[in-house]
Design brief:
- It is a single chain.
- With 510 residues, this protein is an alpha+beta fold.
- The protein has one domain (32-509): Cytochrome P450 (Cytochrome p450), CATH 1.10.630.
- Helices cover 53% and strands 7% of the residues.
- It has helices at 3-29, 55-66, 86-95, 97-100, 107-112, 126-138, 144-164, 169-186, 191-211, 236-264, 272-282, 288-322, 324-338, 353-365, 398-402, 434-437, 448-465, 502-509, and strands at residues 70-75, 78-83, 375-376, 381-383, 386-388, 393-396, 466-470, 480-481, 487-488, 493-497.
- The protein has a four-stranded mixed β-sheet with strand order 1-2-6-3. It has a two-stranded antiparallel sheet with strand order 4-5. It has a two-stranded antiparallel sheet with strand order 7-10.
- It is globular, with a radius of gyration of 25 Å.
- Bound molecules: protoporphyrin IX containing FE (HEM).
- The site of protoporphyrin IX containing FE (HEM) has 29 residues, from helix 6, helix 12 and helix 17.
Amino acid sequence: MGYEAAIAIAIAGASAFVVIRKLQWNARSKGLPLPPSPKGLPIIGNAFDIPTKFEWEVYEKWGQELGSDVIYANALGFSLVVLNRRKAAVHILETKSAATSSRPFSPMVCELLGWDNIIPLAPNGDEYKNKRKLFQQHFHPNNMSLHRAGLRQSLPQLLTSVLDNPGDFRHANKMFMVGTIVKLTYGVHKKDRVEYYAKLFDDALEPPMRAAIPGSYLVDIFPWLKYVPEWFPGAGFKKEARKGKELGRRFADEPLEEALKLMHSGSGEPYFVATAHADADSAGGIDPNRLRFIRDVGASVYSAGVETTLGTLDYFYYAMSVYPEVQQRAQKELDEYLKGEGLADFHDEPHLPYITAIVRELIRWQPVVPLGVAHQSTEDLVYDGLFIPKDSIIMANQWAMSLDEEEYPEPHVFKPERYLTPEGQLDPSAPNPESIAFGFGRRFCPGSHIALSTMFITVSALLELFTFTKVEEFDPERQVKIGNTRGPTDFRCGITPRVRNARDLIQSMS
Ligand code: HEM
């Protein structure tokens, strides 16, 4: 066979391959188009378009420019689908939840750093199902009185810290959230231990947070790089991964060991590890696998519950300092109902609709999980005449949904009134941002009731005791800490007591 014939056969073979792929694609997509996407480059697709900063804003802008609520990007073979409106998220992530509730696999985060053992990052499967079930058994809304008791015990420490040292309110918020979660999960409440875990957990969460920024590590694009030895030039990521993985191990193991010691010393408190251990014991005995599940669920509570609720609480101080009229209306509601005789308790919530409306507005106005937690599709899907291929990474742009003018007119204004009737009661017909902020479908946040209770009790106590004033310019849209969750960078606000008996009121809670 001559040279020309060989070339002709090669070209014919390549063309046949392209035609077969095209026919297979047409059969899968039934000729339907992919969602609109920015124009990419050959082979690498939209690799250079994928944003690494304020991604939620860029995706919303793409949606506006492309005239679609669902947009698509293809980067080096990865399909990314972003849902900019709630209607699309409900259809794709809830109605079709069976096919859209897995999680994408990142070689760096999941394998090299070893974080796919926690519930939010675990792919679908029995391990995931059993861990979520174990979480829900203990942190179930039916057990709310248990969690609320824990919250009530942690709150006086926060209020006293803000009273004594108002300039350090951010640190006080952090210790409150870390303290509440390690108490509910591990039974740990000594101040020095809470400080210790706050530092360990920050250090341990830093590597996966960094790795979650798209494009941070080439190994996520070329997974075979994971086999390159650590000493190989350019393989610095392997050393980072080794150190990060060890921190991740300590993150999960150390508090578990302390919780077990407390349990064996007879603390008798009903925190998660002790209860799950006792349940396993009475159901046939505890084995290493069961203990591993308890460890991973414990680590899930911290990694999913602290930064999210903390970011929302931090934004509360800022919101009150720039919306004094909201603050005054809330304080009037508290004063009229409580008459200065004590701090609000959970059972007071139905009588304090404006406080509930403030909590709702906080989770809407500054979404702390702006792109949700990425889902992955496990089947081909069709939405509104658009084809969404299997294995797409699907992100719910919760930031864009929360600021959707059609559901929330004047979306950038902090307006709790939007949830109230003219008589000041909660309006059941008003859109509720809880249906956005806590995600969608089978992966819906199982800790939402704890987050909302934390915010209600904290916001009502802080508003009853203090006045918040603006002392410096701060841009809540730009001055944000970037990571998996979005929270404000450092800012100051004036905090002064508004009642004389603040300390007595705090003590009455203890
Ligand atoms: C304001 C506070 C919070 C916000 C905004 C929030 C939001 C979210 C979101 C958006 C997801 C992903 C849902 C999805 O994939 O569609 C999630 C998952 C999760 N959240 Fe929360 N969350 C908060 C507080 C908490 C708390 C306090 C806990 C624990 C006590 C918690 C535990 C979890 C867990 C375990 C998951 C993983 C669920 C799964 O993948 O099956 N969250 N949360």
